[in-house]
Structures are given as structure tokens and as C-alpha cells.
Amino acid sequence: MLTQQIVNGLALGAIYALIALGYTLVYGILAMINFAHSEVLMLGSFAALGLAAFAPAAFGTGPLALAGLFAAGMLAAGALNAFIERFAYRPLRAVSRLAPLISAIGVSIILQNAVFLWVSDQSVAFPQPIAIRQIPLFGGAQISSLQAVTLAAALILMALLHFVVEKTRIGKAMRACADDLEAAGLMGVDADVVIAATFFIGGALGGAAGVLYSMSYGSTKYNLGFLPGAKAFTAAVLGGIGNVRGAVLGGFILGFLEVLAAGYIPNGAQWRDVIAFSVLILVLLVRPSGLLGEKLAEKV
Amino acid sequence: MKGLLHSRRTQWVLLAAALSLPFLARALEFSFLTRVGGVVGLLMLLSLGLNVTLGYVGLFDLGFIAFYAVGAYATAILMRAHVAAPLAVLLAVALTVLIRFLLGLTILRLRGDYLAVVTMGFGEIARLTFNNLDALTNGPKGLQVRPWRPLAFLGAWKPLEFVRKESNVQFYFLIVAAVFLAAEASRRLEDSRVGRAWVAIREDEVAARLSGIPVREYKLLAFTLSAVFAGLAGALFALWDQFVTPESFIFWESILLVAIVVLGGMGSIAGVLLGALILGGIPLLMEATLSPQWIDYRYLFFGVILVLMTLFRPQGLLPSARREAELSS
To answer: What is the 3-state secondary structure (H, E, C) of chain B?
Structure first.
């Protein structure tokens, strides 16, 4: 029973972690909560759906379909996120800290309603590219093929992100900008390019999460992003926002919390989110910058 | 323009204009207008409340609507327990203030966006609790509140006879009075020693502390005081609508309030009122006036307006004079 819950928690947590990374990457550099991120992941799932609808023969089932859905979702979400940054956030970057937040809210409303009006106001069936079956694990627990794909995809993407951030030139530039945007600019780092790249990478991870999330529910909807988006944001903060490892840790913790609350507490499903948020508040009261967040002096 | 905004006379002219709305609505046979006015008025009240924490002190609160909910639910539950309406309002406001005080006591040492997330979490906890505590709140089905007609006596006077039956008009007048008082209270706070301390904290907490301002106490004071506005708005809402459900208190409402304060102009009373009028009034007026073909587009338009307003007036529609001086220097 407990092993089973751990498997479920891992699969759910992996999705939250991917989304949380999108929040934390952006926050790390701009100290901005990207409120439109939940819509970016929703549009990622719709882009994947569009590809499957456009070429059902090639992208209906099988590993190619799986790869195609991910590619479409990630590219579309990444490009969209970078596009939003260019037109809705960049002009406000120097003005104030709260202004981009409000335009992010506006963008989020626009995106949701655009899908609501021009695509569908109902749930739409999402393609199921792999056959669902249960793979037995030790201790009587099972992992579904979908959960296995989710975990594998999330781990691959996280490894990829780690590689990009730690080993590549753009990753170095990203870390420099996160450290001190102004100083990085003075050292010849093109902040605009780095920020655009950060938004693209964060959006792409969100797009992958959107595809995984809608695959696990078998459907997608115009407001699909809101709930996982809000929770992943919580996860990012729990881990210490701006901290990449913290986002992953927070995502998995939140996934476990939810699954365990639903499994072990009477009426747990109903109180699941209350428990998750209460834990968040308690953790922040003990560690005001999150679990792995650095204790920074307030910038003066 | 600036002089006009801050003149005492402007205030009375605006009050008179606001009070004449129901008569205008009656003359135009467009009674929905009064309802829109009331809804916008409640938003103004809430935004003035959030303005005290977010606008003056810069405490980023993403769960302000929770206290609107506490005020509304407390009023509804007290009314069902046959408490007299005015007393129910008083108790509801007191309870709202108490809860916010206790919350502030625990969470105000968090900074910036961490505070935002914790308040967001609290907002969701409050909504889900109201949703799940069936015994007290009747869950998602909501609570019915017995009718209360506060200004029925006005009907005794001939020209106001129509007011007797119209609860919309009666509550509209009450709400206008509450907004007027809230704006007046905000203005007095702003110009006081306390208000100056708040702004000092917003602009530079370290410098404020070094100047001898007890930062913790002043933050807690602002955080707690804002609950008066929220609790009162909630109580009026419950009595007016006679129906309270968790659905009225979703996260989106908290976000809307933040947008109103930021786009109106942080710390600017006139700005916040104008922000509430525009951001609160636009969707409602579109709902009433757009042709069926376009009505579904109203939120899309709203999103576009929000983005454009931010891009063109990032400092807010009517930034406070003090803040503008700082930003331009």
C-alpha cells in the first residue's frame, strides 16, 4: 500500500516538478512570478493535441507519436513563453516589479479565453500514444506504463536542464544573470537573449508537463493549467523559489503530500489541498526562504 | 488636474454623483446600473482595504478575498442564528479583524513574494474550509440569509418611495456610504504619522527601521486595519445577496484586487477607486450591453485591456503624488 502511494506520489510529483522549474528559472533571474505559466502549459497540451489531430496516422500511437506530442508541446509552449516575455514583460522590466505581474495576469486571461472561444469550451479527448498496462513492482505495488513514461520523461528533462545550466555557455550566462543581472550585462552578457532563452526553456518544460498531465487524465481543457500551475508554484516556493534543485524537491514533496493525504486521512481527498497549503505555510514559517532557498538579505 | 483630485469639494461632488445613480438608472429604466454600482462599490471597498497593505506598506497579499469571505460567512451564520443585522455586521467585522491580526502575527516576518504565496495559500485554505465544513457553512450549496431592508424607512418620503421595495437601491446607498467613509479614513491615515511610517517602510524597510520606526508593529497595524474594509464589504455582500457560497471567493478575485490597486496607482485613493470602477465595471457593463454574438468575448477583451493598461500606464492610472515624485527623481 505504502509502496503504491510512493509510486503514485513520484509520478504526480514529477509533473509538478517540471512546472515548478518553469516558475523558478524565471524567478531566479527576474524575481517575477510568471502568472501566465499555467496557460503556457495548457497551450503546450493543445499544441500536442493539434499535431495528433493534424496527422493522426503518424502521431496516433507508438513511440513516434509520443515523441511527436512532446516535441510539439514543448516547442509551442517554449516559443509562446518567449513571445509573451518579449511583448508583455520586457517593456515593463525596468519600470516596476509589480507591473509585469499584472500584464502576466492579463496574458493568462487572454490565452484561456482564446482557447475557450476558438478551440473548445469543453474537455477534449487527448491521444493515448502508449498502451496502458500495469507493470508489477516489488511489494505488490504496480506502476502503470503512463506513470513510467512520466517519470522517465521528467528525469530525462531534468538531466538535460542540469546539463544546459551547468555545462553550456548559455547556462553559464543564465547563472550569471541570476546572480546579478546588471553585473552580467556589464560583463558583456546579452541579458535580453538570456532571458528569452530562460523563458523558452521554462516554457518547454511546462509544455512537457502539460502533455504528461493531459495524458494522465486522457483529456485537456482550456482551464487545465490553473490547478497544476498554482500547485507547482507552491512547490517552487516550498523548495526555495529561484533554486532549481529546490523546485524539483518541492514538486516531489507536494506530489507525495497529496497522494498520502488522499490515501491515509479520512476525507483526505477533500482536504488534500488544505493539507498541502498548510504544510507550505508551516515550512515557510520555519524556513522563510523555502527548504533550499538561500537566506538572502533583502535588496536595498 | 492634480489640484482638482485633491480638492475637498471634488469629494462631495463625487459623492453626490454616486448617490444620484439609482435615480439615473430609474430614469433610463436600466435598473441593472444600480446593481453594477453596488458591485463596483464593494470592489472599491475591498481595494481600499488592500491598498492599506499593498499600496501603503507594500505587503504583497494574494489572499485578501479570504477576509471578504470571513466577513460574509460570519454575517450569514450570525443572521441565521437570529442576531440583529447591525450587530451581526459588527461582530463579523470584529471576527475578520481578529483572524487577520492572528494571521499577521504569524506570517508577517516573511518577506516579499514569500508573503504573497503564504497569503495565497491561506486564501485557498479558507475557501476550501468553507467548502468542506458542511455543518457550519452548508458546503458548496451555500448559505441563505434572511432578508434585511436597512433603508426601507426612506420610502416614507414621497420622492424616495420606490426605495422601499428595492433592496438593490438600499444596499447601493449603504455601500456608497461605506466607500465614502473608507476613502475618508484612508485619506486621514495617509496624512498621519502612521501613514508616513507605512510609506517609509514600503520604500526602504532598512532605512525605516534605522529611523526608529517600529517596522513589525506598523506592518501588523496595516495588515490588521485592512481587515475592517474587507470584513465590512463581506458583511454588506452577504446581507445584500442573501446568499453566500464558496464560489464567490476564488483566487481570481484576490488577483483582481491586486490588479486594481497596482493599475489604479499604489497608495493612491483616487487611483484605486478609478481602478475598481474600470476593472470592476468593464466586465459587468460588457455583460449588459454586448450583443449575444460578442458576449462570450468579454473576458478576452478584459484581458487585452489589462495588458494594454499595464503597458501604457505601468505606474498606475493616478499614481499617488508622493510616489510619482519618488519615481521621477
So the answer is: CHHHHHCHHHHHHHHHHHHHHHHHHHHCCCCHHHHHHHHHHHHHHHHHHHHHHHHHHCCCCCCCHHHHHHHHHHHHHHHHCCCCHHHHHHHHHHHHHHHHHHHHHHHCCCCHHHHHHHHHHHHHHHHHHHHHCHHHHCHHHCEECCCCCCCHHHHHCHHHHHHHCCHHHHHHHHHHHHHHHHHHHHHHHHCCHHHHHHHHHHHCHHHHHHCCCCHHHHHHHHHHHHHHHHHHHHHHHHHHHCEECHHHHCHHHHHHHHHHHHHHCCCCHHHHHHHHHHHHHHHHHHHHHCCHHHHCCHHHHHHHHHHHHHHHCCCCCCCCHHHHHHHHC
